[in-house]
Every structure is written in structure tokens, then in C-alpha cells.
Amino acid sequence: IFLALINAIDGPTKRLSSRQYSFTYRSENHDHCVKIINFRCNFKAYCLFSFLNTIIYCIPAGWIWGEHGFLKKLGAVDIAGSGAVHLIGGSAALASALMLGPRLGRYDKGIGPLPLGNPVNAVMGLFVLWWGWLAFNSGSTYGLSGAKWHYAARAAVMTMMSTFGGGTVSILYTMVKLQGKIDALDIINGILGSLVAITGGCFLYRGWEALLIGTIGALLTCSAMPLFDLAGIDDPVGASAVHGVGGIWGVLAVGLFADNPAPLDTTNGRCGLFKGGGWYLLGIQALTVVCLLTWGLVTTSLLLWAINKVITIRMEVHVELLGADLTEHLVKHGNVNVVGVSRAVSALTSAIDTSEISRLHNIGLNPAHNKQIQMIGDMKNKKRLRLPAIFKEIIRNRDLGINNAKKLIPRRKKKANLDTTGNFVVKKRPPSSTVPEDNKVLNIAWVN
């Protein structure tokens, strides 16, 4: 809107195409942060972060693509954004995960990945991204005139070649990891990691090089995901691994394999290390990685810290337990059991206003949310007396999660009472007990 008001979107076609791509890259960069803060970020804080996050992308993008950018003057190459878009987004996502902390109960039962909420939608999302990546990379020539059409077509083909390698190694990785089984999440993120890796030099490579770059990118991505979980960094969709680790490899790969496309002179006459170009281009690409990674981590941390002073960035406990769809957006998923929702809401009725939730209709499907709701509803029935104490522990130390908080609450001991006839009265007891006393063993029979 601001650019339209100052007539900044009027001008030569080349400038318009550049600005349109900048808008698209900005949206893509922000999407990486959004995915990682799912399930636990306050919606109002998220909206403010979305607006201010533009600063985090625009400044380093100017370093690489701007006319006076210091990295551009040094000779850094990043054709379609392995560094400026994906590495910045991945590092910002990592900082966001560190600032927000893990979801409640995420690591109660180990570091293994949680099941996908909807695997079909996840795979469909992969195909949408895959198709869009062809436009991203081939459109980075900003036209088809002269020799540009040749390199636009080359970018599209090399993009597909990288995913062939990435997809193959992802399948092999998950089969080894799961002893013959195939995990959809590993394959999805492996292919995305190969796409991120090829983006930095999409028309600077030969076919076998693109295949190798995609293979290494996918392997690094799949290997990094469990390492983040091992460190207690809760990344619901693997954005830090896909865009952060994949982006680092994509920027460095240019310094190793790049050819100089003579008509476009994209690399300023330089070639990669394996093409006889020496160490200079690889050194500049490594410097680019350090600058972008540092910028993304530091600025995102400072931005979230500042926002937290105005609006608490973490959801309230009851909102996170019931899910923001239900409590903030009034969306009740179609497969959620009505009785289960009622029980879960009843368990938290002292903390929230349930009047709006009770009138909601079912929309869409979300098995993961259904499981969470069912767990809270079961707690209402089985641990009615212990429920307030459990939630107090969660509120006091939100990193515990539900299962660990339950372990800290001592179970109520059943007391044996005497009735008017002197007999013991208990609800549950064994038929008899043995008690040692003065070197003797007394056998006590329990009677009503």
C-alpha cells in the first residue's frame, strides 16, 4: 500500500518484475518463521511479528541483491535466494523456536517425531511448493529475451534434477531409519531440502552436479531434524533443518560447482572451486553464510524479546491445551468428538469462558487435535481431584507438559476407616495382608 501511494510501483518493466519477485521472496521468507511457531505463539503477537519481520528480510536481501550491497560488491552469488530467503528464514525460525520453547508435553515421551496431523494435505502441500519452485527459479532471469530463455529453461531442469536426487536419498534414509518402513515427513522435508539447496545457483550447474547437490541437501536436512529434537528445539515441521541447513549448503555449493554463464555474467567472471576458479568465490560464499546466519538469529531474538514486552508471545496454557483453532478462531474440527470437547472444556471451565465454544459447528479434520482433546477429557474423569494441582504445575513450569506434571503430584492414599462394628471399611483391598511384628508374621484378613 505504501509503495502504491508513493507511485513506487510505476516504472520500467524490469523494475516491476524485480519488485514483484521481492514481494514474493518476502512472503516466502516469512512463511518459514510461521511454520515453526505453530501451536504455541499468541496470535496477536504473531500478527505484530509478521509485520515487523519484514525488516529482518529486507536488509540482508539488500546486501546480496542491492546495487550497493557490500556482499554483492564482494562477488557473492545467490540467484533465487538460498541465502537471502531460505537461510534468513531458517535462522529466524530457529531463533523463534528457542525463544518460545517447546510445546506442552512435546518431549514427555522422548524425542521421536509426532504423527502428522493430516498426511494427505502435507503431501499435497509438497506438490504445490514443488510446482511453485519451478517458477521461482526459472523466473530469476527476469525475462526470456536474448539468452535468458536458455538459462530460465536450464534453471527449471536443474531444479527437477536436484529433487530426483533428494527424493531418492530421502526414501533410502527413512527405510534405513525405520527398518524398511517409509515416513512421509522425512520424504517431504528431504525433497524440500534439495529444492532449497539448488536455489542459490539454479542455472549455474550441470545435470549431475544438480543431482549431487540435491542429494546432499536432502541428506543434511533429514539428518539435522533429529539433532534439533535431541537439543530440545521443538520444530513442528522441520523448518530450521529444511531452510536453515539446506540454505547453508545451497550458498556454499555455488562456491564449489558454479560455472560463469557468459551472456549473463552472473558470477562476475568467477567459477567455483571444482571448476578451476580457486578459493575466492567459496570464501565469499562462506562469508555470506556467516553474515546471514548471524543477522537472522540476533535480529529475530531481539524482535521477539521486544514484542514480548508489549504482548506475551507464548499462548496461555489453557489456549495451548485446547488449541488456538478452538479458543481463538472458534473453529471446531469435524472429527473431534462432541462429548470429548465438552469434557475437555469442562475440565478448564474455571480458566476460560466456554459460552462461544459450546455453540460451534464442526469444520475440517485434525486428528492430532482430537487426540489432545480426548486426553484432557479423560483427565477430567479419572483425575478429577488432582486436576487443579496438575494445571498449577503446568502454569508454574510450562516446560513440564501434562505427563511430567502428573508424575509430580502424589497420588491420594486411600484410608481404611472403622465402621460402627469395628470392621475395616475400604473401597479396594486385597483379601489378606501380611505384617511383620516382633519377629512374627501376622496374617490379617480383610472383612466388610
TrEMBL record:
InterPro entries associated with the record: Ammonium/urea_transptr (IPR029020), NH4_transpt_AmtB-like_dom (IPR024041)
A GO molecular function held by the record: ammonium channel activity
Keywords associated with the record: Ammonia transport, Membrane, Transmembrane, Transmembrane helix, Transport
Subcellular location: Membrane
Principal subcellular localization: membrane
CC terms in the record's Gene Ontology section: plasma membrane
GO biological process, one term: ammonium homeostasis
Membrane topology: Multi-pass membrane protein
Occurrences of domain Ammonium transporter AmtB-like (ranges): 40-329
Transmembrane stretches, start-end: 45-65, 85-104, 116-136, 156-175, 187-206, 212-230, 237-258, 278-305
SUPFAM superfamilies: Ammonium transporter
Similarity remark: Belongs to the ammonia transporter channel (TC 1.A.11.2) family.
Name assigned to this protein: Ammonium transporter AmtB-like domain-containing protein
Organism: Callosobruchus maculatus (Southern cowpea weevil)
Highest classification ranks of the organism: Eukaryota, Metazoa, Ecdysozoa, Arthropoda, Hexapoda
